[in-house]
Amino acid sequence: MEKRAVYATRHEDSRGRYHDEAPSATRTPFQRDRDRIIHSTAFRRLKQKTQVFVAHEGDHFRTRLTHSLEVAQIARSIARTLRLDEDLAEAMALAHDIGHPPFGHAGEDQLDACMQPYDGFDHNAQTLRVVTRLEVRYPGFDGLNLTWEMLEGLVKHNGPLIGADTHIADLPAAFREFSRIEDLELDQFAGPEAQVAALSDDIAYNNHDIDDGIAAGLFTIQELMELPIVGDVFRGVKIEYPHLTDRMVTYEAVRQLIGIWINDLVDETRRRVKRLQPASAAEVRALGEPLVGFSDELADKQRALRAFLFERMYKHYKVNRMRSKAKRILAELFEGFTAEPQTLPAPWRQDATQADTFRRARIVCDYIAGMTDGYAIEEHGRLCDLTRLG
């Protein structure tokens, strides 16, 4: 095995878990974190949670689960190339979406609207809540008891949370309620593996949304030809393989585009390493800028792709119709359960009926956020459809 980079996170030096446990005889601490994520209920539910398209719209569109697996593959490849801890990067990637509610960003927007009088909703904060409280599967503690490095990466993978203009009091409720939140060094960046996982997410959804958008008929290959990089790659594939179907052209182009994004990130990160010369993961966290990133040139061209996808895919009327339905489903579930907590199933019912209004709203939010798309639709039918009994 190639020697790790000096700035990689070292599992031997992990700051440990909040609840002491005997070390595993067969796994490093970060391998253990990864396995706990994979075996969690929240991770399994991702198989029926929306990425862009609701599950019943087609078997071939990406779900949160398949997206998370794709992000993990990209993150692991990049971490290996940069000589980082592959297991930590993979674990971060697998866990990054487990706080998402049903119906993708529409679901998050609606839950946040419902929770505005009660400190709001944020899927990143909900991820922390899931791994530290809501997963109940171990006799010695609530949550998954992940390592410090996993928790700080999940919380800060998009950058520092507090600074000159932002304080802990400004953070989402789930962050503030975590008793050890200040221990996660919120004024610093996350470690290098978390930074890799965050940008692997960008690589995955940028390119796989192209695939899903074409498959759904929301736009065509020809319409992509005007985009920088993307158009060049699609043209090159068509020239090199003139007899391929559009479906096969898309597969090959997306494969090449992922490679372009990965290579750019690796090259740019190596340039930053050479300039900044961090000697440890702690120094990476303390830098005044991210160590891992895309070049300015690719970042500019990536913005053009994101703008195209936003207009042609995320705002497409078919997607908007599903967003509208999803918002109504979650709004009516939230209203019904908070008004009549006795309609909740056990064990949520007992906690909600005994709670004050503020606490009850958070319990209902936790229940709804954990639902799959299909279960939310079923629960809505059971609660709101007067023709159904039970």
UniProtKB/TrEMBL annotation:
Residues 64-206 form the HD domain. Pfam families: HD (PF01966), HD_assoc (PF13286). Residues 1-28 are annotated as: Disordered. The keyword tRNA-binding does not apply. Residues 1-22 have a biased composition (Basic and acidic residues). One of its GO terms (biological process) is dGTP catabolic process. PROSITE patterns: HD (PS51831). Keywords: Hydrolase. GO terms for molecular function: dGTPase activity. It comes from the Bacteria. SMART domains: HDc. Belongs to the dGTPase family. Type 2 subfamily. This is Deoxyguanosinetriphosphate triphosphohydrolase-like protein. It comes from Hyphomonas adhaerens MHS-3. The lineage of its organism: Bacteria, Pseudomonadati, Pseudomonadota, Alphaproteobacteria, Hyphomonadales.
